[in-house]
Amino acid sequence: MPIFFQHPINETTRLGIWKIEETEEFFKGNVPQHRDVTHPHKRLQHLAGRFLLQFLFPDFPYELVQIADTRKPFLPDDQYHFSISHCGDYAAAIVSKDRRVGIDIEIPVEKIEKIRDKFMSGAEQLRLHLNGELRQLTAFWSAKEAVFKWYGEGKVDFKEHIQLQRQDPGKEVIDCFFEPKHKKLKVHYRMLEHLVLAWVVDGE
User: How far apart are the first and last CA of the chain?
Assistant: First the structure.
């Protein structure tokens, strides 16, 4: 079973990363496809993400998932809060019974260095002692993506609205201030072989 990483955050919240080794037919035999995805690999990622939701919580009601205007998937009655991310041959999901959540996975690539001034302010780069280390820079990008998905309402300027304030490398936590809601958040992250994972759980 290709579960690459699994983390029970608390009694009501779980996350996992699935390494995609199965065929499309395997996933289609287990989960519905909620939207038309024409690219074969993206379709496989989409299906693997849905499969992972029920792997984490077996009673997750796939058939009730809807897609918001912001393209965020959700359950109408908030029976579960959830977030999904895909990258390469991996799908990640976080599911909670009672808290809003967001997740992101990334494979570090050189192009992140070229856009760092577009998603990080000069003040952030000074505060966080950014030294051009690729995996760390990717973690900062992933942290902001996780916050964006946690918010789920679109129209977010990564540079202005999601402000990374302090990093605690020993605890793999980044303190963040989300300006649109004037809210402090803690973004957790992990460096996993060739992947970077970041997630947010409301109230942590």
Answer: 30
